[in-house]
Specification:
CATH architecture of the largest domain: 3-Layer(aba) Sandwich
Number of helices: 8
CATH topology of the largest domain: Rossmann fold
Distance between the termini: 27 Å
Number of strands: 12
Radius of gyration: 22 Å
Helix content: 40-55%
Bound molecules: calcium ion
Strand content: 15-25%
Strand order of the largest sheet: 2-1-3-4-5
Order of helices and strands: EHEHEHEHEHEEEEHEHHEE
Length: 223
């Protein structure tokens, strides 16, 4: 998990960074709005912590610009003490939560964790697309070139796992642990059998194959 912290007060920024890193979260610091906007575009952050009082563009302007660019990652605002206007402005402009300065670090951490969990849940519910194959994790509906494909529960589980890890080589051990939830040697045959089922349903009628065998290693789904 990678967080962008936009805060011009170096002491505050370093304290937050140190605290988060002790919790295993990576933190990049941006000292003003311009730098923040550059970083947001270049790097994928899971969450942005945005102070309102910044030199140049203030936090609200930065927030609006981030949202205007279509970046919907969770944003936590740091607002000045007792400034109700800032809170309202921030939430109206698309912030997900705010915390008033001075704050207790544990509270910031707890709220950031909650936002990260929520963001992850939303992301997990988004349809996954690989070429013309679309998997909807909410309805479990699978279509290829617009045509619905009927899958058994296990076939679906295997397909979703592979699709979430597209372009990555998945060993039989990884598949066994993640899809079957246990691991023993005789399972590798079952995996091969299920891959064949999926191939028949997903790839057989299409020229472009999405499921690939990586000889001696495992399988991979890719365009
Ligand atoms: Ca500040």
């Amino acid at each position: 998990m990678k967080i962008l912290l936009v805060e011009d007060e170096r002491k505050v920024a370093n304290l937050i960074k140190k605290g988060f890193e002790e919790e295993g979260l990576m933190v990049d610091i941006a000292e003003d709005g311009e730098i923040a906007l550059e970083k947001v575009s270049a790097d994928g952050y899971d969450l942005i912590i945005l102070d309102i009082m910044l030199p140049g563009k203030d936090g609200i302007e930065v927030l609006k610009e981030i949202r205007a660019r279509g970046i919907m990652k969770p944003i936590m605002m740091l607002t000045a003490k007792d400034s109700t206007t800032d809170k309202v402005l921030g939430l109206d402009a698309g912030a997900d939560d705010y915390i008033t300065k001075p704050f207790v670090f544990e509270e910031l951490l707890a709220r950031v964790r909650a936002l990260l969990r929520r963001g992850h849940a939303i992301e997990k519910a988004q349809p996954i697309q690989i070429h013309d194959l679309i998997i909807d994790p909410v309805t479990r509906k699978v279509t290829r070139a617009g045509k619905e494909i009927e899958l058994t529960t296990k076939e679906y589980g295997l397909l979703e796992y592979m699709a979430r890890n597209k372009n990555r080589i998945l060993t039989r051990t990884m598949i066994a642990e993640n899809v079957w939830d246990y691991q023993f040697d005789s399972l590798t045959n079952i995996i091969d059998v299920y891959i064949n089922y999926l191939r028949k349903k997903i790839d057989k009628d299409h020229q472009k194959k999405l499921i690939h065998t990586v000889r001696g290693v495992g399988y991979m789904i890719k365009e």
